[in-house]
Structure formats: C-alpha cells, structure tokens
C-alpha cells in the first residue's frame, strides 16, 4: 500500500465512514482502531493507531490539503527559485512543476527559476524510490549539487550589488 493510499484510508477511517469497529480490550487500551472489510472478495483487516488517525484529520491537515498556493504565488514580486527532486513522492514534480510555472508566469517579477534535480527525494537526498520511510536510512543530509544550485542562484542575483 502506498503512502497516498494509506492516507486516503486513514481519512476515511477518521471520518467514521467504515462503519462499526471491532477492538479487543488490549487494542482499546493502547489506542488502536481495527476493522475488517471485504474488498473485491478479499477480507482486509485495517489496524490504525488512534494517534495516526487524529493527525491526518486535524484542522491543520485539512487546511493544508485544501490550500491553493497559486493566488499567493501570483503576488510574489521577488526572484523565485523552486527546486524539486525527481523522485519526490510528497511533492511529485510531474504534478507540481507545470502548475508552479503557470502560477509564477503572471506575477510582477519575471525572474523565475524552476528546476527538477535528477535522482533526489523531497529532502534533496540521493534516492531511487523517494519513499519517506527511507529518509533516515540515507547517509547524505543534502547532496552538494542541490546546495550548489541554491548558492549559485543567489550569487547570480547578488553579485552586482
């Protein structure tokens, strides 16, 4: 199950749309929610920690999921550097680069740089899969190439000052 699927299921659980739950006394004590569903003829047992459900159904998460940054981006009147990692699963470049460019196209300043850095995850670490569960397992904090992209972009804009 991918993170996106897991979150969708958690949201459904948090909204109480899955119907009655079954929980043993031990599960209730440690704050675990469980339910058994029939999905395409297969029996699936869902188990979630109540804390996880509360996190993804909090007011902040609901705001974050619904927030559209485009109107704010259209008002930015300073140079913009937007970097994406090609393996980023949290902000996938194939879904976000074009909308970012479009939102920044009509703003007061025309100094916009949008780049996708090959082979990097959300934290600009080298990654083949981009899975957030791998962040702590990758020794590199941030690849030097990403830092160089940021520093050279800044230097290009401040060298004449």
3D architecture notes:
- The protein is of the alpha+beta class and 161 residues long.
- The chain is built from seven helices and four strands, in the order ααββαααβαβα.
- A two-stranded antiparallel sheet has the order 1-2.
- The radius of gyration is 21 Å and the shape is extended.
Brief description of this entry?
This protein has 161 residues and is α+β, with helices and mostly antiparallel strands.
Helices and strands: which structural class? Answer: alpha+beta
Q: How many strand elements?
A: 4
Distance between the terminal alpha carbons, to the nearest Å?
Answer: 51 Å
Quickly count the helices.
7
On the 0-100 scale, what is the average pLDDT? Answer: 76
N-to-C order of helices and strands: HHEEHHHEHEH
What are the low-pLDDT stretches, counting only 5+ consecutive residues below 50? 1-30
Q: Which range best describes the helical content: under 10%, 10-25%, 25-40%, 40-55%, 55-70% or over 70%?
A: 40-55%
Strand order of the largest sheet: 1-2
Radius of gyration: 21 Å
**DSSP strand (E) fraction?**
15-25%
User: Mind describing the biggest β-sheet?
Assistant: 2 strands, antiparallel
Shape: extended
